[in-house]
Amino acid sequence: MARLTLETLRKEYDRGRVVAVEDLSLDVDDGEFITVVGPSGCGKSTTLRMVAGLESPSGGSIHIGDEDVTDQNARKRDVAMVFQNYALYPHKTVMQNMAFGLRMSTDLSKDERRERVRETAEMMGIEDLLDDKPDELSGGQKQRVALGRAIVREPDVFLFDEPLSNLDAKLRTTMRTEIQRLQNELGITSLYVTHDQEEAMTMGDRIVILNDGSLQQAGRPKDVYENPANEFVGGFVGSPSMNFLDVRVERDGTRLTLVDDDGSFSYRLSESFSATLREATGEDELRVGIRPEDVETTSTGPNVVESTVGVVEPIGSDNYLHLDVGPDFIARVDSDVDPSPGETLGVTLDESDLHVFHPETGESLLYRESKQKATATQ
After folding, report:
1. 8 and 150 in a common domain
2. Which of 11, 28, 38, 54 could bond to 4 as cystine, CB 3.0-4.6 Å?
3. Phi and psi at residue 109, to the nearest 5°
4. Rounded CA separation 47/121 (Å)
5. Cβ–Cβ contacts within 10 Å for residue 235, how many?
6. Are residues 59 and 222 in contact, defined by beta-carbon separation less than 8 angstroms?
7. Which DSSP string do the residues of 103-128 spell out, in sequence order?
């Protein structure tokens, strides 16, 4: 086990015209499980391949423990990788697939390799499959074999490249729990790449969000969810996505109204929040974010906004209500709130749940304010 450190890691293609990863710095503590998430093409798999030694960085460095492995051959790095497509040898048995890495990277005897594979297979619950070949296995069994092949190496670092994306929803949930259990037992430093933000949120000690090759935010899943650093993170993390409204701060500073609106939306702020907003922003027009689960239905109160229900999506315990408060505006409510399409409904927002972003840069203005206050108290 070891600490993994990426320092201003960069990857360019086409003589620098395409930047896949831009000056990424990240510290992964010994035994920490980090999930890396972002849209397609954000650079997450490229980052993983550079750590594995399958891609050469254009700049920056990679350290595993105290060793600089930036220019080291992949075979010499003490890492084990689990791939999306399992990457099992079809002509080899499960035993041979799991033992292959040991044969290539250790001095263990054949009997020692077989014994270690059997111990790992018992841990993975696949000891009865050791004589089978990959085409005789289900998707879940193949994934267990791929995990077992990585575990048997006892590496310093585990690398996971979207390992569950080929599985059905139920099996994905089962394997997600299994990976977490194994990581807790083994305590091996892990970097887990996924496009599924639910996987990223539920599995990681910390979550890293990338976009266009750049680091957007890193932190504990709960912290990132509650205090996104910018509009991209706010909209990417959470399901359904955060609602966004273009608003104007009225001259007296106590009300928010929609930009280019007929005046039907008028949200009154408390004096303390109004003062915080003026101190943090200094802007007349802002982007406000509100999570669907923070939208409340009500018929009374000082900040009730009348809205028309467009579509109702029942998902079991909750209903998603598509409202005309703003573009793609969704309220996530209890299933017993079940209006009909076209019905008028009152909704309100608690100002403590509002996220405020710069209309041009997308930077979270209240995030910056909270960071400054936290620094001042240290």
Report:
1. yes
2. 28
3. -75, 170
4. 30
5. 16
6. no
7. HHH----HHHHHHHHHHHHHHHT-GG
Residues 250 and 338 in one domain: yes
What does R_g of the chain's alpha carbons equal in angstroms?
A: 25
Task: Clarify whether residues 278 and 168 are in a common domain.
Answer: no
- Identify whether residues 99 and 211 lie together within a single domain: yes
Question: Environment class of residue 56 by beta-carbon count within 10 Å: exposed (0-12), middle (13-18) or buried (19+)?
Answer: exposed
Residue 237, token pair as written in the block: 């993390």
pLDDT of residue 259: 78
**For residue 377, what pLDDT is reported?**
40
Q: How many CA atoms lie within 13 A of 343 on its CB side?
A: 12
Q: Which residues contact 278 (CB under 8 A, 6 or more apart)?
A: 249, 253
Instruction: Give every residue of the chain whose pLDDT is below 70, as ranges.
Output: 1, 253, 260-264, 281, 283, 368-378
pTM equals 0.87
| Residue 214 sits in the same domain as residue 269 | no
Angle between helices 139-151 and 169-186 (to 10 degrees): 20
- 257 and 130 inside one domain: no
The full DSSP string for 174-190 is: HHHHHHHHHHHHH--EE
The pairing of strands 285-290 and 266-268 is: unpaired
Question: Beta partners for 161?
Answer: 193
Could you tell me if 285 and 189 lie in one domain?
no
Alpha-carbon distance of 237 to 209, in angstroms, equals 9
The H or E element that residue 348 is part of is: strand 344-349
Domain span including residue 179? 4-232
Distance between CA atoms of 249 and 269, rounded to whole angstroms?
10
Q: Which of 232, 267, 290 is the last residue of a domain?
A: 232
CATH of the domain at 213: 3.40.50.300
